[in-house]
């Protein structure tokens, strides 16, 4: 079972938008040195929507090679095209990913039956790859209901779900209804601690990009049920959890990493660099967390 702090890794880029491979290596090493338990390669925080399929697979392969088995690598292989998701998932398997993360299809707004058939078809097409569902209705405009997740839990190689609804009662209801058939992970930094205390086994985290050590410690404490330590660490990280979403993710977190001297300023259109009016707020949050 993959557990703990799973960083939703950004994809560093040169100012012209090309992938910065040297900085990607630096980020991988930075996370492993600071206790991150797993790396999500080319998820939506990694700008999967603007990498073409060849680049997408190149970045996944590059991260797997750099990690070299030191921590699990979960490849982001979702999309709003079932065929494309199958192709990416199959390629990630060949590249050696430990699991794949499949986002709910965005924009085309399938029905619950459509969601079920989408994920079932991918799972059956690549049966020897562990697959994690990813529900983030705030970004996809499509909400996969708990009832649909329970149906998908019957498929052997669907092993987990990243719940980024931010709805704690709903998340707890899902954990209880699954009875261990799927592993539940938080996908919302602001509410992750409470969901892990209620039984989730980790957090797919944006905040971990800039505060990997504290997020790893928080996840370990929460999974162990150490509420006192969780509250201390959560208070430390909460300003970052909020300020890293002042504009659409990953705009603020890429600016923060640039401010920390870890990456260049590159980001791909239609995303643009963080508005100057927010620089001070993000910088203050970095200082409050002790990472700047």
Automatic annotation (TrEMBL):
Keyword Magnesium: no
Active-site positions on this chain: 134 (proton donor/acceptor), 162 (schiff-base intermediate with substrate)
Record-level GO BP terms: diaminopimelate biosynthetic process; lysine biosynthetic process via diaminopimelate
Protein name: 4-hydroxy-tetrahydrodipicolinate synthase
GO molecular function: 4-hydroxy-tetrahydrodipicolinate synthase activity
Annotated PANTHER family: 4-HYDROXY-2-OXOGLUTARATE ALDOLASE, MITOCHONDRIAL, DIHYDRODIPICOLINATE SYNTHASE
Residues flagged as site, L-lysine inhibitor binding: 49, 80, 84, 106
Pathway assigned in UniProt: Amino-acid biosynthesis; L-lysine biosynthesis via DAP pathway; (S)-tetrahydrodipicolinate from L-aspartate: step 3/4
Entry's EC annotation: 4.3.3.7
Recorded name of the encoding gene: dapA
CDD domains on file: DHDPS
């Amino acid at each position: 079972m993959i557990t703990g702090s799973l960083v939703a890794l950004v994809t560093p880029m040169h100012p012209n938008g090309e992938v910065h491979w040297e900085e990607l290596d630096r980020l991988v090493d930075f996370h492993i040195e600071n206790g991150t338990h797993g790396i999500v390669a080319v998820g939506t925080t990694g700008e999967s929507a603007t990498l073409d399929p060849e680049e997408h697979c190149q970045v996944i392969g590059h991260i797997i090679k750099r990690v070299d088995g030191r921590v699990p690598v979960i490849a982001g292989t979702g999309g709003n095209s079932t065929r494309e998701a199958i192709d990416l998932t199959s390629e990630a398997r060949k590249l050696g990913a430990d699991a794949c993360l499949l986002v709910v299809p965005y924009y085309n707004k399938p029905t619950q039956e459509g969601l079920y058939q989408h994920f079932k078809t991918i799972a059956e097409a690549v049966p020897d790859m562990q697959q994690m569902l990813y529900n983030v209705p705030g970004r996809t405009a499509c909400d996969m209901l708990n009832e649909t997740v329970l149906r998908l839990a019957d498929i052997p190689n669907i092993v987990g779900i990243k719940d980024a609804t931010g709805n704690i009662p709903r998340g707890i209801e899902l954990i209880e209804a699954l009875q261990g058939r799927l592993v539940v992970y938080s996908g919302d930094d602001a509410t992750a601690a409470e969901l892990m205390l209620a039984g989730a086994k980790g957090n797919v985290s944006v905040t971990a990009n800039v505060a990997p050590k504290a997020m790893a410690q928080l996840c370990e404490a929460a999974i162990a049920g150490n509420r006192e330590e969780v509250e201390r660490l959560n208070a430390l990280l909460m300003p970052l959890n909020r300020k890293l979403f002042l504009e659409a993710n990953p705009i603020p977190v890429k600016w923060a990493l640039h401010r920390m001297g870890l990456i260049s300023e590159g980001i791909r259109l239609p995303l643009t660099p963080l508005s100057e009016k927010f620089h001070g707020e993000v910088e203050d949050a970095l200082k409050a967390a002790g990472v700047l």
